[in-house]
Amino acid sequence: MKGRKIHALVDTEGLPLRGVVHAADIQDRDGVALVLDKIRDSFPGLELIWADSAYHARQVDAAVAAHPGLRLDIVRRSDAMKGFVVLPRRWVVERTFSWFGRNRRLAKDFENLATTLAAFIALACIQLAIRRLAR
User: Fold this and answer.
1) How confident is the model over 14-54, as pLDDT tens digits?
2) What are phi and psi of 76, to 5 degrees?
3) In the 8-state DSSP scheme, what is residue 54?
4) Nearest-CA neighbor of 106 among 126, 90, 121?
5) Cα separation of the two ends of the chain
């Protein structure tokens, strides 16, 4: 697999709840079902997911509708805004990806297999959670 994409579901603090690695030719709207497939078993109290406008599609609505009690809120940029504006909840996942970049094996895509990359992402998630708990 030449290109990869990582979908991550994180809490409001940026700690990863679920991550999925797949081929880069899968669009964001189609990758949502991969992330949400087992999330209800692990986090039954999850009620709201914030996402950016790339997830505003009928495929996403269908994936969310398959999980009763789960709601998706799209964080949109106002047309009146000019230039760069930080939107609430928009940069939480990007911050998590930058935390992943602190790990040598995740700074660049060195892995041949997607499962190996997923394993190193899981290790990075564990490291993040342990450091947060140690504070």
Assistant:
1) 888 888 888 888 888 888 888 888 787 888 888 888 888 77
2) -110, 150
3) G
4) 121
5) 39
